[in-house]
């Protein structure tokens, strides 16, 4: 007597098109498309030739830092020190260049310092066992204090014109900034790392259950350390771009940027509790926030109102995600006496009879 095999995991009990389209990431992408269409139709000058350039330039630091931040949050941790690393790398670039060092050499030193900052966070979280929220709040103040202490209230602005033009330039005659080229390369690297490698599967396992991941052979501490180092290096690179784009190295550069990054990552479907999230949803979340901010700015809306709109959108996305998970869990739960319980009940009776 043949029986039809059933799927062992609930997510794979649905057809492929449902698993692809009926997801939070797809909803964010659809919402982003709707908002872009609204902005093109209703916001004056949003369809201008420079809108895409400035939109991508404004969101480039967030796009860059959101890549490693996604992996960090999937493991159930968080890194609030990223904006301070941006400011510290900016100051190092300015101070070292002012002291006679070339821009590439100063940038290399800033990247190494960013890696050292990430290593400090990773060691304290992964090996000492301290909570990442407390650690990165402390290092946020530490790195920002070092940056302000090195440069004070002054700014370094005498960067070579060739490098500032490179940071503000575009690809050929298009409106796509040159910074999108290294960003695209990083997207490929982080996509392969998270979604197509054993390392990425370990990242999800840690977020779902750290103890189970450890017993399954995942190097939990080493994985977290690597992610925090990547976060520090990418944040330092974003600081170099931030400095050269505006032509100014200051200790308070990128203040508050970490909140925008975390908001974009959570809006893109990554669970703050860890264990779920995909990069394409995060990228859509960053673009959505950038489009809203750009459209409201063209409409003459103040930054405070823009922050309120983005905050409300983030709260709605988090609450709706929790609500959908609760409702879907209730719907999947079999009713007492239903056919869904029959195989389990039969197996229990067979086991009892065998005993």
List key phrases describing it:
globular, mainly alpha, 355 residues, ABC transporter involved in vitamin B12 uptake, BtuC
Verbal overview:
- The protein has 355 residues and is mainly alpha-helical.
- It has one domain: ABC transporter involved in vitamin B12 uptake, BtuC.
- Helix content is 71%, strand content 0%.
- The chain contains 15 helices and no strands.
- The chain has helices at residues 16-21, 24-42, 51-74, 82-98, 103-127, 132-151, 161-168, 180-195, 198-208, 210-215, 220-246, 257-267, 279-298, 303-332, 342-354.
- Helix 4 packs antiparallel against helix 5 (103-127) and helix 13 (279-298) runs antiparallel to helix 14.
- It is globular and about 70 Å long.
- Mean pLDDT is 85; it is low at 4-9 and 339-355.
Helical content class: over 70%
The low-confidence parts are 4-9, 339-355
Determine the N-to-C terminus distance: 25 Å
Number of DSSP-assigned strands: 0
The CATH class assignment is Mainly Alpha
Q: Report the biggest beta sheet as strand number plus sense, adding barrel if it closes.
A: none
CATH topology: ABC transporter involved in vitamin B12 uptake, BtuC
Structural class of the secondary structure composition?
mainly alpha
**CATH structural architecture:** Orthogonal Bundle
What amount of the residues lies in strands?
Answer: under 5%
Along the chain, the helix and strand elements come as HHHHHHHHHHHHHHH
